[in-house]
């Protein structure tokens, strides 16, 4: 028999949901197990139920013998309360288990809250338990913060974690639209424009029914492909407000999104003016017929247009709910007008209509109108260019994506259905009007046929009318001549006029709403900082009132200018550019093969999207070539501007994904190419620690790796792994960002290790990728080695040995002041904090000064004076005073100057290369690369090599020949013949004094004492080692004398690095060599390659 805990002890972590696993907090106590059996039965687990009943939850049972493992989680033996007395916020007197699937664990089950962004409008973002929380040793005394009993086990947030919502995006209670009212209605209204009623009949007359339908289908193909691409992008994650701008920017990045977003918003704003002017022109035509003109046609259009746009603005500002109601009303009127046309085609025609070319459905008319009959100056593409704008408007629903209940469902469904319905309507109207109305008609009822007249195949003649004179003189009726054919054919003409009003006003209203919404989303992203003012929204729907006013001003301006015929082609091209980029976005995201590209809408193809993008670009030139050129120029200018400004955003665009794929492909391709000496370049690991702490070391390395080789700034964190990893991970992005900000082309890498040498050893072996692996280690000279612990010296020399073991070259850089400026950075950080505190107090004082009496203010000033954070005295630098108070002012000033010395342009001077030992040519290659850099190009190379005194000229000629074969320009060659003579006594005495504290002097002691000293201090320099290396020691001291003589005034000295044999040369003796060799010199690079050729004279 198994023992179960009380069924009343379960506490819901979340509201009951049949689709989710249940995670429960279970109370258990010791007394409840008193009646348990001896535990011979195997553990029994009750069924898991996913039903809605609260009492039917997942339970776990255990044998009493195993209860000890659970007892460890109880706090001080306290028993848990039953469900009747348990409260979710009562954690001080209760003890309970945190249970997932019935097991004691803080590991979390999958929940949507973990994947939301901060400030999500659909719900709060919560944090799952970190890997450390579930990986580290579990604390015996589990303390749960108040209110987190049902949060921690489910990962809903760690105790104390509070998520703040973005108040600006808080849309609780906002009006949201479904796919019909939000997308379908808007798209249909925007696609069905005035073109349907006044130009479609002319297009059928020019192109014929066959080509007319082809034009409609070709236009629909462009919009359908764009609709499929839009649907794919819209279903690849949560869609916020911004429509086309949001879709493009999140797919291709801010450069494309920012450029197209601005012109798309502007195009919508100007489109308001175009649609309103179309409405005003229709009204003015009616005024002409009734002889009711107000002023003159042009000014009447301006007056009516201005009044109309003010009314539309009022509807928009009233809120999206009113605007949606107006759109539905306009759609009903439009549908009635279209139905009115189809009804009119079956109503028997009268003599007046027949004289104007309408004969109802006639096969002869259909046959006559099926083929094209282009008039002079017209052709297929010109007619296509006129019709295509009638097919646009498919983004009307997507443009208000922020106001949709479910954009991912509404945009694909509403957009594609709207394209289908409107296309069917266009084709039906084209076929019907082409089968009912002849191309030319006189309008005269007297033009009937004469008996025995030869009709010559004319459909009108066969129907009793002679319109043959239209071949010689212009006629006013028929498909080719009368733009009011649909009104004539319809059952009730005024309904067509109402349809025209509905089409123009609905399109104007949709554009008036779209432009501010898109513009607001663009401004919120702060891509154009000057436009941030328009990002603010008002009310529960976050309405962009400022954007409405701006759109109103633009629309009103173009209505008053009344030059829309010129700008209309540019606006059409702006829309087409948006379509092209949406298609390209879909293709690009698919081509990048990012795992994050998982659109729920699967009816798309990347190559079809690419074809759609190309097609859109081609249509732009078909419509108007100069407008297409202007569009591309504007878009390119905005793209360059946004790229230059580099907005601080990261949207995980497909551009980033493709960059990764390209880099990966190139890296893999590079592995198939064998290394060649001609392509050798220094690829460096630089032990800078944090890159900002040793800038000079990084600068000199960057000088010969920039744009040519790999540079990795490395840092080793030594200490407890948990603390090191936490510190390392927290600073990773900050330090890489510092490199980018300072335009240093380098990577940052860090490792956590038990000791410094182990960390460097790991970096030497594991850094890099494929062929892009480090071949050179760059380290700063350890200036304070005589004051450092022995272990640090062993590690320092040890990493040089390790580099040689791994066949990696070594460069040791020494400058007079040293590299580490972390002390200066710390002082600067403290000064910045003090300055911020001072400014904060001053701001508080100013605020209080305006509100309170002078007595209170004097008290605040006195308090500020005691805190020493008032304004500093004139002509005194607080930073200098602070540093001087630390007794490091002068030192820090020199250190800062030294840290910047390689950032400056080096004046005319020399780089002295002491190529004493052949290491494969790295000692020569590095200074050569420096001389071709902008900052070092004024420095000449002087080459110093060792030689025999009696062969100086021959060896100089030989070296000059070698350098010329290497194609390395040099200013001078010096052959040093006296390197191997003994140094002078003063120099040698300095060296001996330097190593004296580290000598063992075992020869002066008896054998027993000497052996004891060797065991106790194995790191000391023995007399035997010193004697064996005496010649090398002489050489280092002598070289320093020669360097002082020849290279004291050089800008940089590059010198062959001496190599110490492992186990033969004491670490301290080696450090003494490096010290005496580089003492009192300009900046020095001690270089030793891996003894493999890095130079060649073969082509």
From TrEMBL:
UniProt main location, coarse: membrane
Ribosomal protein found in the keyword field: no
Segments crossing the lipid bilayer: 191-218, 260-280, 301-320, 326-347, 379-398, 418-438, 545-564, 570-591, 603-627
Start-end of Basic and acidic residues biased regions: 41-51
Catalytic reaction(s) noted: K(+)(out) + 2 chloride(out) + Na(+)(out) = K(+)(in) + 2 chloride(in) + Na(+)(in)
Coiled-coil regions, chain positions: 824-851
Domain Amino acid permease/ SLC12A: 182-685
Protein name per its UniProtKB record: Solute carrier family 12 member 1 isoform X1
Classification of source organism: Eukaryota, Metazoa, Chordata, Craniata, Vertebrata
């Amino acid at each position: 028999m198994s023992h179960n805990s009380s069924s009343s002890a379960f506490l819901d972590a979340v509201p009951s949901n049949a689709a989710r696993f249940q995670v429960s907090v279970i109370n258990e106590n010791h007394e409840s197990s008193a009646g348990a059996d001896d535990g011979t039965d195997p553990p029994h687990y009750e069924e898991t139920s996913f039903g809605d009943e609260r009492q039917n939850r997942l339970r776990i049972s255990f044998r009493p013998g195993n209860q000890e493992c659970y007892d460890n989680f109880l706090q001080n033996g306290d028993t848990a309360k039953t469900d009747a007395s348990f409260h979710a916020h009562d954690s001080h007197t209760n003890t309970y288990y945190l249970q997932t699937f019935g097991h004691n664990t803080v590991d979390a089950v999958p929940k949507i809250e973990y994947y939301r962004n901060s400030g999500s409008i659909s719900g709060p973002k919560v944090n799952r338990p970190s890997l450390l929380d579930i990986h580290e040793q579990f604390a015996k005394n589990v303390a749960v913060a108040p209110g987190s009993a049902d949060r921690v086990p489910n990962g809903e947030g760690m105790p104390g974690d509070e998520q703040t919502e973005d108040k600006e995006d808080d849309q609780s209670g906002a009006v949201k639209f479904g796919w019909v009212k939000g997308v379908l209605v808007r798209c249909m209204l925007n696609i069905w424009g005035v073109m349907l009623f006044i130009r479609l009949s002319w297009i059928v007359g020019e192109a014929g029914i066959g080509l007319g339908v082809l034009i409609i289908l070709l236009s629909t193909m462009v919009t359908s492909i764009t609709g499929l691409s839009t649907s794919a992008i819209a279903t690849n994650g949560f869609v916020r407000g911004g429509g086309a701008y949001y879709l493009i920017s999140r797919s291709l990045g801010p450069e494309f999104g920012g450029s197209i977003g601005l012109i798309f918003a502007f195009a919508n704003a100007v489109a308001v003016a175009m649609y309103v002017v179309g409405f005003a022109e229709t009204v003015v035509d009616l005024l002409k017929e009734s002889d009711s003109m107000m002023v003159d046609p042009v000014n009447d259009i301006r007056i009516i247009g201005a009044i109309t746009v003010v009314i539309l603005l009022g509807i928009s500002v009233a809120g999206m709910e009113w605007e949606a109601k107006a759109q539905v009303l306009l759609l009903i009127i439009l549908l009635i007008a279209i139905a009115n046309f189809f009804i009119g085609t079956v109503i028997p025609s009268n003599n007046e209509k027949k004289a104007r070319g309408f004969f109802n459905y006639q096969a002869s008319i259909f046959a006559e109108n099926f083929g094209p009959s282009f008039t002079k100056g017209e052709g297929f593409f010109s007619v296509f260019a006129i019709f295509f704008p009638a097919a646009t408007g498919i983004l009307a629903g997507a443009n208000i994506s922020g106001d949709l209940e479910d954009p991912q469902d509404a945009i694909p469904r509403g957009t594609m259905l709207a394209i289908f319905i409107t296309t069917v309507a266009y084709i039906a109207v084209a076929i019907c009007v082409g089968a009912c109305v002849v191309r030319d008609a006189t309008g005269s009822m007297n033009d009937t046929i004469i008996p025995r007249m030869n009709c010559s195949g004319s459909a009108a003649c066969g129907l009793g009318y002679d319109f043959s004179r239209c071949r010689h003189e212009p006629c006013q009726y028929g498909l080719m001549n009368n733009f009011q054919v649909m009104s004539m054919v319809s059952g009730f003409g005024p309904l067509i006029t109402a349809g025209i009003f509905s089409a123009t006003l609905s399109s104007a209203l949709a554009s008036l709403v779209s432009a501010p919404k898109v513009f607001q989303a663009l401004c919120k992203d702060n891509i154009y900082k000057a436009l941030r003012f328009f990002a603010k929204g008002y009310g529960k729907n976050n309405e962009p009132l400022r954007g409405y006013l701006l759109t109103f001003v633009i629309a009103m301006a173009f209505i008053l200018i009344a030059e829309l015929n010129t700008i209309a082609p540019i606006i059409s091209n702006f829309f087409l550019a948006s379509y092209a980029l949406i298609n390209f976005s879909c293709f690009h995201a698919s081509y990048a093969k990012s795992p994050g590209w998982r659109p729920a809408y699967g009816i798309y193809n990347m190559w079809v999207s690419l074809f759609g993008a190309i097609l859109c670009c081609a249509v732009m030139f078909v419509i108007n070539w100069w407008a297409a050129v202007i569009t591309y120029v504007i878009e390119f200018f905005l793209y360059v501007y946004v790229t230059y400004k580099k907005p601080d955003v990261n949207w995980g665009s497909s551009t980033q994904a493709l960059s990764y794929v390209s880099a990966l492909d190139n890296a893999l391709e590079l592995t198939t190419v064998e290394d060649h000496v001609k392509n050798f370049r220094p690829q460096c690991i630089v032990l800078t620690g944090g890159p900002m702490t040793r800038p000079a070391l990084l600068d000199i390395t960057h000088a010969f790796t920039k744009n040519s080789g790999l540079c990795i700034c490395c840092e080793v964190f030594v200490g407890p792994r948990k603390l090191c990893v936490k510190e390392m991970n927290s600073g990773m992005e900050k330090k890489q960002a510092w490199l980018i900000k300072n335009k240093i082309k380098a990577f940052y890498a860090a490792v956590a290790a038990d000791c410094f040498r182990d960390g460097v050893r790991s970096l030497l072996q594991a850094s890099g990728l494929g062929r892009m692996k480090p071949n050179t280690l760059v380290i700063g000279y350890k200036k304070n080695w005589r004051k450092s612990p022995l272990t640090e010296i062993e590690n320092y020399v040890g990493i040089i040995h390790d580099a040689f073991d791994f066949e990696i070259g070594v460069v040791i850089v020494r400058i007079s002041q040293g590299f580490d400026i972390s002390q200066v950075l710390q002082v600067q950080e403290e000064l910045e904090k003090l300055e911020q505190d001072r400014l904060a107090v001053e701001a508080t004082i100013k605020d209080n000064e305006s509100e309170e009496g002078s007595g209170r203010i004097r008290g605040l000033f006195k308090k500020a004076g005691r805190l020493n954070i008032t304004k500093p005295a004139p002509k005194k630098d607080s930073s200098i005073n602070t540093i001087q108070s630390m007794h490091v002012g002068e030192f820090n000033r020199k250190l800062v100057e030294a840290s910047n010395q390689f950032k400056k342009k080096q004046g005319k001077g020399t780089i002295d290369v002491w190529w004493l030992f052949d290491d494969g040519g790295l000692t020569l290659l590095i200074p050569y690369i420096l001389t071709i850099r902008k900052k070092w190009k004024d420095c000449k190379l002087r080459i110093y090599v060792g030689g025999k005194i009696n062969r100086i000229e021959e060896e100089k000629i030989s070296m000059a020949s070698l350098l010329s074969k290497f194609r390395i320009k040099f200013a001078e060659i010096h052959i040093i013949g006296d390197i191997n003579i003994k140094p002078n006594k003063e120099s040698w005495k300095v060296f001996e004094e330097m190593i004296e504290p580290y000598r063992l002097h075992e020869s002066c002691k008896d054998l027993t004492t000497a052996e004891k000293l060797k065991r106790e201090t194995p790191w000391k320099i023995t007399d035997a080692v010193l004697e064996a290396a005496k010649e090398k020691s002489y050489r280092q001291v002598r070289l320093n004398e020669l360097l002082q003589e020849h290279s004291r005034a050089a800008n940089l000295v590059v010198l062959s690095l001496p190599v110490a044999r492992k186990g033969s040369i004491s670490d301290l003796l080696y450090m003494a060599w490096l010290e005496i060799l580089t003492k009192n010199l300009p900046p020095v690079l001690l270089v030793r390659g891996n003894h493999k050729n890095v130079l060649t004279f073969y082509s």
